[in-house]
């Protein structure tokens, strides 16, 4: 009985090792470089100017296909965010129309949006989106930075120490790193790759074929910044990724600040308890 259990355990271990080795040899996990973000690490914070540029990139390059329905106009003025002025938010909202409450006959009309409204998406429903985009359904970008991540191709025995490293460094930017790599990963397809209908080659996307066209295909200068930041594809990708990271985690700064306060409190409490313990038990020793 014991020999049978040992044999089964050994077989399972061999399968795990073989599977990991096969995946590693096949190159299934695409390498994604870690980027430096102002909101990364334990002391991370968002750059207001970068978030404002990122919102501009979203509205001019991404909003034609993608919604961000969990974000309201007023959120753009809240602390820890893009910090737009309230007047600018009201002017921005006034450019949109949203559905009004039903009237006495149950008919739903349109009205001018106000800061309390959610930012409208480009399509009325899923069917309209698929019909317009050749059957593809673009995801809502409200939580995309949390919904995406990086798959490591490291052997399974490296996973524990990599997890410890990420915990110590406070690494939570896997989604941001992936989206940046995806946005800058569009390439002409290799000669031996045949793309499907309405598909585009991307070096990072699993399978390397994505229905999303390159949003920055026009190159540098597509979006005109209001400050002195160079209007390059790299900056477009970085800025919109920062904006989407904030949209997915708008309380990041408050959360990290509270975490530091709690850790400081626990450290001081541990020191005080240590002194109390030594004082109480000093006569015993």
Number of helices: 9
- SSE ordering: HHHEEHHHHEEHH
Residue share in helices? Answer: 40-55%
Query: How many structural domains are formed by the residues?
Result: 4
The major sheet is characterized as: 2 strands, antiparallel
Uncertain runs: 5-27
Beta-strand content estimate: under 5%
Quantity of strands, as a count: 4
Q: What name does CATH use for the topology of the largest domain? A: Cytochrome Bc1 Complex, Chain D, domain 2
Q: Please, what is the average pLDDT?
A: 87
Structural class: mainly alpha
Provide a brief overview of the structure.
With 285 residues, the protein is mainly α. The protein has 9 helices and 4 strands, in the order H-H-H-E-E-H-H-H-H-E-E-H-H. The longest helix is centred in the C-terminal third of the chain and has 30 residues, at 252-281.
Characterization of the model:
By secondary structure, the protein is mainly alpha-helical. The protein has 4 domains: 1-27; 31-70 and 130-250, Orthogonal Bundle (Cytochrome Bc1 Complex, Chain D, domain 2), CATH 1.10.760.10; 72-118, no CATH class; 260-285. It contains 9 helices and 4 strands; from the N terminus they run H-H-H-E-E-H-H-H-H-E-E-H-H. It has helices at 2-26, 48-62, 86-93, 126-132, 144-147, 159-169, 174-183, 233-248, 252-281; strands spanning 97-99, 110-112, 200-201, 209-210. The strands form 2 sheets. It has a two-stranded antiparallel ribbon. A two-stranded antiparallel ribbon has the order 3-4. A hairpin with a 7-residue loop joins strand 3 (200-201) and strand 4. The chain starts with a helix and ends with a helix.
